[in-house]
Design goal:
The complex is a heterodimer of chains A (530) and B (323). With 530 residues, chain A is an alpha/beta fold. Chain A contains 18 helices and 22 strands. Chain A has 4 domains: 178 residues, 3-Layer(aba) Sandwich (Rossmann fold); 69 residues, no CATH class; 179 residues, Rossmann fold (3-Layer(aba) Sandwich); 73 residues, no CATH class. The chains are: A alpha/beta (530), B mainly alpha (323).
C-alpha cells in the first residue's frame, strides 16, 4: 500500500508544519476526485501561506491541474474542503472562485483573440448592463496596474495580435482586475522565451511584495527553485511532499516526482562527427496561405552528431520539419542526402533513409483510435515482412510490434490495445520505436519529449544519443531550451523563418540563445556551419 | 424623368424586399455570434408566417398574428437550442430537420384547418400590416425630387419595414456596447474564456436564441401579413438561406449584413421589373432566368468577391465543460 502510506505521511507532515497561529491564505483538505476509472486526486491536502510563491510540481497526470481546477471551480471535488483565509468556502463554479479572491492564469490562455485588451479584462466583470463605464474603469485600473507591477500592455490592441508573453500579462491583469488576492498560474513559462519568463518572474515577485499569494504549477524544476518560497510535490494523484525551497534541490524534487532516482543530465561522450549526411541549401517554404515561413535556410547535419534547432514556436521550425519530412513542398532550394536530392513525399524519403518523428504525435504521428499494431506500421505497411498473399499478415505485424514495444519500453507491451489508451510518454516512445527501429541514416525529430514524463524523457534522450553514437545524423527541433542545450552538439537558432545564429553546444549560454530567439542580435554571428 | 421614376420604384421595392432579409439576417447574427449555426432561419420564418396568418385569419388582428408569429419562431429556436445546447447535437442537422419539419407541418395544418390546399384564407386589410403614410407625403408628392424621395421612398411602408431598419443600429448597439453583447461574442469566439470569467455559456446561448426567435418571427410575420395577404405553402422560398448568405457576406456584422440584404433585395426588385421586359438584342428574357438571378449572383459573390469571411471561432462547436 505505498500510496496510502505516502498520503498518510504527507498529511502528518502537513500537520507538523502548520503552526496554529498563522492562517494560510488557501487550504485544501482531503480533496478527492475521480474521472470515471481515473483517480485524479487522492485525498490531497495543501496549505499555501499568504504573500508567498508556492510551487506545485509533478509529472503530467500527477493531478496538479485537476487540483487547481477544483480550487478554481472548473471541476467539483468528490470529497474535501477548501478554506480561504481559514474560512471554509463552497466553490461551485468559477464565479464563486472569483468572489473568493482566486484568479487563474490557464496554460492555454482564456482570451478572446478578436477582443481588445480592455474588452478581455472586463468580460465577466462589466459592472453594469452597458459597457462604457466598465471599460473606462478598466482603462484606469490598467494604467495603475501597469505602473505598480511592470504589467505594460497596449489597452486597445487586439489580443490576437499580441505576443504570447504580452497575452499572458493580459491574463494576469484580468485576474487582478477582478480583485484576485490568490493567483494560480498553470505552466506559465511553457511558451515564453527565457527573457519573457524573466519578466514574468519579476512581475510575480512584485505581486508577492504587495502581499498577493501565488501558486505556480510547473514541471520545470529550475524555475520553481528560482522563484518559489515553498514547493509541494504530487505523484499519481497524491501529495507526496512539502519542502521549503531553500532546503531542497532539483535532484531531490525530481526523485520525489518520479518516485525513483532520475538522471537529469544527458550522459553523453564527445561527438565524433563524420561526413555530411543531410544538407539543406537555401530552402524556402511557404504555408497554405502563401506566406513564406522558412526563408533561405542552409545548414548541414553530419554523421554522428545531433543538431538542434532552437526558437520560439511559430518561427518556421514546424514548416522546416515538414519540408524535410516531405510533407510540405519546398518553395525554393534543395534538400540533399549524401549529396543527392531526396525524392518527393514522405514515403520516398522514408525508404531513402530519412525518418521523421512529427512534433504532434496525436495529430500527425499516430491514429489514436487504431490498435497499437496498426499505429506501429503507419507509413511502413508496404514492408514485405508484413504481407502474405497480398494481404496484411497481422500475426507478423503483432510479433514485430511487440518486439518494438519491448525495445522501447512501451508499457503495457500489448499490440492489440487502443493507441489512445497509452499515456503520452508511451505514445511518444511508440512513434520513436516505429521510426528508429528501421535504422534510418537521418532522423528528423520534433518536440520528442513534449508532454512526456521525466522518466520517459530520460529514456528518449538516451536513445537519441545512442543513435548519434551509432554514426547517424539527428536533427532535433524543440521548444525546451534545456533539452536542446543538454542533448545537441550544435545549436541553430531560428527566428522569423531564418537561421539567425549557430552556437556550438558547449559554448551556449541560455542568455545568448534567448536573445537570438527573440530576434535581437540577429546577424551578429556567423551563419555558416564550421 | 421616366428613368428617375423607375429608379425610385425599384429602390422602393428594394426596401420592401430587403426588410425580411434584414430581420432574418439579424436573427442569424445573434445565433451565430453566440456560436450556434442557424441553418433553420428558413424554417423559423415559414413557421412564423403560418402562425401569424392563421392567427390573424381567426382573430382578425394583425397584432395577435404578430404575437403568434414571434411565439412560433421562438419556440422553434428553443427546440434548436434544446437539441444543440442542452444535448450538444449537430447544429446543421438540427437546423435542416426543423426546416423540413416546418415545411411539412405548415402545409398539413393548413389543409386540416382551412381546407384551401395549404393556404390560409385571404386576409382583409384590417388583419394585415398596411403601409403607413407619413404626414405631408401627399402634399409633397408633386414636388420634383423631394416628393419621390419622401413620398415614395421613405413614406408608405408598413410598420415591420421600419422596425427592420431600426433593428440594425439597435442590434449593433446591443452587440458592441452592452454587457450582453460582449458576453455573447465571447461565447461565440471562445466559450472557455467566458466560462472561466464566470459566465454561464449555455444560458447565454439560450438568450441569444431568444433574440433570434423574435427577429425571425418578425421576418416571417412580414411575409404573410404585410407582403402578402395570407400564407402560401413554402412562401419563404429560400429567403432564410439568402439571409444566411447575406450574414456571411456581411462578415457577421450588423451594418455590412444590412447592406448585403439591400443588395439581394435590389436584385430581386430588378428581377421583378425585368419580367416580361424586352432586353435589346436578346428579346424577352424567360421569367425563370430572371428569378434565378439573385441566387446565381449569391453563388458568384460568395465564391469570389467577398474575400475571406472569418466566422466566429467557436461557431458550430458545442460547449462541453467537463470532459
Amino acid at each position: 500500500m505505498p500510496r496510502k502510506v505516502a498520503a498518510d505521511s504527507a498529511r502528518a507532515a502537513l500537520r507538523d508544519e502548520m503552526p496554529g497561529s498563522v492562517v494560510p491564505a488557501v487550504e485544501l483538505r482531503g480533496v478527492d476526485k475521480r474521472f470515471g476509472r481515473v483517480h485524479a486526486n487522492r485525498d490531497v491536502s495543501l496549505a499555501v501561506a499568504r504573500g508567498a510563491i508556492h510551487g506545485l510540481v509533478g509529472e503530467n497526470g500527477a493531478g496538479k491541474s485537476t487540483l487547481m481546477s477544483i480550487l478554481y471551480g472548473f471541476y467539483r471535488a468528490d470529497r474535501g474542503e477548501i478554506r480561504v483565509d481559514g474560512r471554509p468556502v463552497a466553490i461551485e463554479d468559477s464565479e464563486d472562485a472569483i468572489a473568493a479572491g482566486i484568479g487563474m492564469v490557464h496554460q492555454h490562455f482564456m482570451l478572446v483573440d478578436t477582443f481588445s485588451v480592455v474588452e478581455n479584462m472586463v468580460l465577466g466583470a462589466e459592472g453594469g448592463a452597458l459597457l462604457a463605464s466598465g471599460m473606462s474603469r478598466a482603462r484606469r485600473v490598467l494604467e495603475r496596474l501597469a505602473r505598480d507591477y511592470a504589467l505594460e500592455v497596449p489597452p486597445d490592441a487586439r489580443v490576437g495580435d499580441l505576443s504570447v508573453g504580452v497575452q499572458q500579462r493580459v491574463e494576469i491583469l484580468k485576474a487582478l482586475f477582478r480583485g484576485a488576492e490568490i493567483l494560480i498560474l498553470d505552466e506559465p513559462t511553457g511558451a515564453l522565451t527565457p527573457q519573457e519568463a524573466e519578466h514574468l518572474f519579476r512581475i510575480l515577485r512584485r505581486l508577492k511584495a504587495q502581499g498577493k499569494t501565488i501558486i505556480l504549477i510547473t514541471h520545470k524544476l529550475r524555475e520553481v527553485m528560482e522563484v518559489s518560497d515553498r514547493v509541494s510535490v504530487m505523484r499519481e494523484g497524491a501529495m507526496v511532499a512539502h519542502r521549503d525551497t531553500a532546503r531542497t534541490s532539483i535532484p531531490e524534487l525530481a526523485e520525489l516526482m518520479v518516485g525513483r532516482r532520475v538522471l537529469l543530465r544527458v550522459e553523453k561522450g564527445e561527438a565524433r562527427p563524420g561526413r555530411n549526411l543531410l544538407a539543406v541549401e537555401t530552402l524556402s517554404v511557404r504555408d497554405e496561405r502563401g506566406t513564406t515561413r522558412v526563408r533561405e535556410v542552409s545548414f548541414t547535419v553530419r554523421e554522428g552528431e545531433i543538431v538542434g534547432i532552437a526558437g520560439v514556436s511559430g518561427n518556421g521550425q514546424s514548416e522546416l520539419l515538414e519540408a524535410l519530412a516531405g510533407l510540405r513542398p519546398a518553395f525554393a532550394g534543395h534538400i540533399l542526402l549524401r549529396g543527392r536530392p531526396l525524392g518527393e513525399g514522405s514515403g520516398a524519403r522514408r525508404s531513402e533513409g530519412l525518418a521523421h518523428v512529427p512534433e504532434d504525435r496525436r495529430r500527425m504521428g499516430l491514429v489514436l483510435p487504431f490498435e497499437v499494431r496498426e499505429s506501429a506500421i503507419l507509413g511502413y505497411h508496404d514492408d514485405p515482412r508484413y504481407r502474405s498473399a497480398g494481404r496484411l499478415d497481422w500475426a507478423s505485424v503483432s510479433r514485430d510490434t511487440e518486439e518494438k514495444m519491448r525495445a522501447f519500453d512501451v508499457r503495457p507491451p500489448d499490440p492489440r490495445r487502443i493507441t489512445a489508451s497509452l499515456s503520452g510518454g508511451n505514445q511518444q516512445k511508440l512513434v520513436l520505436a516505429r521510426e528508429m527501429e528501421r535504422d534510418p541514416s537521418v532522423l528528423v525529430v520534433g518536440q520528442p519529449t513534449r508532454g512526456v514524463d521525466i522518466g520517459a524523457i530520460e529514456f528518449i534522450h538516451r536513445r537519441l544519443v545512442a543513435m548519434r553514437d551509432a554514426g547517424k545524423a539527428v536533427l532535433l527541433v524543440s521548444a525546451e531550451l534545456d533539452e536542446i542545450m543538454g542533448l545537441c552538439d550544435r545549436i541553430l537558432v531560428m527566428f522569423n523563418g531564418r537561421i539567425v545564429g549557430e552556437v556550438p553546444a558547449g559554448a551556449a549560454s541560455e542568455r545568448e540563445l534567448g536573445l537570438l530567439m527573440a530576434g535581437a542580435g540577429a546577424r551578429s554571428r556567423a551563419l555558416r556551419a564550421p | 424623368m421616366e428613368s428617375l421614376t423607375l429608379l425610385v420604384l425599384v429602390l422602393d421595392s428594394t426596401l420592401r424586399l430587403s426588410a425580411p432579409l434584414i430581420l432574418a439576417a439579424l436573427a442569424g447574427l445573434f445565433s451565430e455570434r453566440a456560436g450556434i449555426i442557424d441553418i433553420g432561419l428558413e424554417g423559423k420564418m415559414l413557421g412564423a408566417a403560418f402562425a401569424a396568418a392563421a392567427t390573424a385569419a381567426l382573430t382578425g388582428s394583425p397584432w395577435a398574428g404578430l404575437a403568434a408569429g414571434i411565439a412560433a419562431s421562438v419556440l422553434l429556436a428553443l427546440v434548436h437550442g434544446y437539441a444543440c445546447i442542452t444535448h450538444r447535437g449537430n447544429q446543421v442537422v438540427s437546423g435542416v430537420a426543423l426546416n423540413i419539419l416546418v415545411s411539412g407541418l405548415s402545409a398539413v395544418l393548413g389543409v386540416a384547418w382551412f381546407a384551401e390546399g395549404g393556404r390560409t384564407p385571404q386576409l382583409p386589410g384590417e388583419a394585415r400590416f398596411l403601409p403607413l403614410e407619413w404626414p405631408g407625403a401627399d402634399a409633397l408628392r408633386d414636388v420634383p425630387g423631394l416628393g419621390a424621395l419622401y413620398g415614395e421612398l421613405l413614406s408608405g411602408h408598413n410598420l415591420i419595414v421600419y422596425i427592420a431598419f431600426l433593428a440594425v443600429p439597435a442590434a449593433a448597439f446591443v452587440l458592441y456596447r452592452t454587457r450582453f453583447g460582449l458576453r455573447l461574442r465571447a461565447a461565440g469566439e471562445n466559450p472557455e474564456s467566458a466560462d472561466t470569467a464566470g459566465i454561464a455559456v449555455s444560458g447565454l446561448r439560450y438568450r441569444a436564441l431568444l433574440c433570434t426567435g423574435v427577429a425571425c418571427g418578425l421576418a416571417g410575420t412580414y411575409l404573410s401579413l404585410a407582403q402578402s395577404a395570407g400564407f402560401i405553402r413554402d412562401m419563404s422560398a429560400g429567403k432564410g438561406f439568402i439571409a444566411l448568405a447575406a450574414l456571411i457576406f456581411g462578415k457577421w456584422k450588423p451594418v455590412p449584413a444590412m447592406f448585403a440584404c439591400l443588395l439581394f433585395g435590389f436584385l430581386e426588385a430588378v428581377a421583378i421589373r425585368l419580367q416580361g421586359a424586352e432586353v435589346p438584342g436578346v428579346g424577352e428574357v424567360p421569367v425563370q432566368f430572371v428569378q434565378a438571378l439573385p441566387y446565381v449572383l449569391t453563388v458568384v459573390l460568395l465564391a469570389g468577391f467577398i474575400g475571406r469571411a472569418i466566422p466566429p471561432r467557436a461557431l458550430g462547436v458545442p460547449y462541453v465543460k467537463e470532459r
